[in-house]
Specification:
The protein is of the alpha/beta class and 157 residues long. Helices cover 39% and strands 25% of the residues. The protein contains 3 helices and 7 strands; from the N terminus they run βααββββαββ.
Length: 157
């Protein structure tokens, strides 16, 4: 993967594309109406509604720029069939050494997030250590507190 590419599942790509369409159409119309209504109230220097609407506009325009760049650089990853090793876009269940509680992570972008599953970057120390690992493998990675060992329990799409 080149530095300029951004790997996304088809589902994440479709969700982001829908969000971008909404923000660049309906949302822009709504925020323009809010700003115009606030302007009609008079003095803009002390108009809280106007300043709140302009702040919301700025934040959302930044999101539009971010989404546009992601979509432009997107490479759709498709994991058809069985997955036998950890790759970007998979959910991996691990067990930390000396711990009895399994933890589950999605390896990928925060844009791939799913309810109840924490996302870790494939370029993070744990993410890098897990890439390519198979169920039953033990991997070690460098954490701020020193080396940690985890066992890969399951890998899912």
């Amino acid at each position: 993967m080149s530095v300029h590419e951004h790997q996304l599942s088809q589902a994440a790509y479709d969700r982001l594309k829908s969000e971008l369409v909404y923000l660049t159409t309906e949302w822009r119309i709504d925020i323009a109406r809010k700003i115009e209504a606030a302007r009609e109230m008079g003095d803009l220097s002390e108009n809280g509604d106007y300043h709140a609407a302009k702040e919301e506009q700025g934040k959302t325009e930044a999101r539009i720029g971010h989404l546009s760049a992601l979509i432009e650089r997107a490479v759709i990853i498709d994991h058809e069939g069985d997955i036998d090793s950890v790759v970007q876009g998979t959910v991996v269940t691990i067990l930390y050494e000396d711990d009895d509680d399994e933890e589950q992570y999605l390896i990928g972008s925060i844009e791939e997030r799913r309810d109840g599953i924490e996302v870790i970057s494939p370029t993070s120390p744990l993410g890098e250590a897990l890439l390519g690992a198979k169920a039953g493998d033990e991997v070690t990675f460098e954490a701020p507190s020193g080396p940690l060992k985890v066992e890969v329990i399951r890998i899912e799409r």
